[in-house]
Amino acid sequence: MKNIFKVVLLGIIGFGFLVYLTIPSEKIEKIEKVEKVVENLPKYFEIIGKDVKKEELFKKDSYIVLLNHDSLAVFKELYKKVDKNIVLIANISNTPWLIKNIAVDDELEKMYKESKIPLINDSNAQFRRFFQLNDDSQNMYIIYKVLENNQIVKIYQGSVKRGALQEGINIDELNKNLDEFLANLK
């Protein structure tokens, strides 16, 4: 019995040590003020489940919607209500490293497999830094618009039901949140 306990204990310690050694070091990067134009957007990013050329994503009169945790559950149904050029960005940068690597990509792909709207996985916070966001409320979303001169401007900040991802959201609340979003597309 003592040998089994030792083997289990050493296995747990070894696994913990392995996880610790493979966690990427988080660099604390100062958020710098950068002109908000299409040319300054991050050059490399991961699009979930779609084959889209980068040049087609950020065109004049397109919208960029930065989604935090709970808003991901609401906006997966957006493609049914809108035909505008919209790019969704999943701000999952505060998700623990192990969870990101094990489950997040697959879960995002499952959630958005039917959606016709491209979703960018912002797991390394490139877009969050570009937009200079410090507020990371889990139910918040922010709408940006690409103007004619390639400038990107914030046009609205809203929120969805808190706990929508874990607890779910009923159809009335979902429609209310999406209608509020659509009313603020200028």
Task: Give a quick rundown of the structure.
By secondary structure, the protein is an alpha/beta fold. It has 7 helices and 6 strands, in the order H-E-H-E-H-E-H-E-H-E-E-H-H. Helix 4 (97-111) links the parallel strand 3 and strand 4 (119-121).
Largest sheet: 6 strands, mixed
Kindly name the structural category. Answer: alpha/beta
Question: Which regions contain 5 or more consecutive residues with pLDDT less than 50?
Answer: none
Strand content: 15-25%
CATH architecture: 3-Layer(aba) Sandwich
Adjacency order of strands in the biggest sheet: 1-4-3-2-5-6
Radius of gyration: 19 Å
Helix amount: 25-40%
Give me the strand/helix succession: HEHEHEHEHEEHH
> Kindly, what is the distance between the CA atoms of the first and last residues, rounded to a whole number of angstroms?
69 Å
Tally the structural domains. Answer: 1
Please give the count of helices. 7
Mean pLDDT: 79
Q: The CATH topology, please?
A: Glutaredoxin
Q: Outline, from the CA principal axes?
A: globular
Instruction: Tell me how many strands there are.
Output: 6
CATH class: Alpha Beta
How is this structure best described in words?
The chain crosses the membrane at residues 7-23. Keywords: Membrane, Transmembrane, Transmembrane helix. This is Cytochrome oxidase Cu insertion factor, SCO1/SenC/PrrC family. With 186 residues, this protein is an alpha/beta fold. It has one domain: Glutaredoxin, CATH 3.40.30. The chain has helices at 2-22, 54-57, 71-75, 97-111, 126-130, 164-167, 171-183, and strands at residues 46-48, 63-67, 86-90, 119-121, 140-146, 152-159. It has a six-stranded mixed sheet. α3 (71-75) links the parallel β2 and β3 (86-90). The longest helix is centred in the N-terminal third of the chain and has 21 residues, at 2-22. The protein is globular. The chain starts with a helix and ends with a helix. The model has no long low-confidence stretch (mean pLDDT 79).
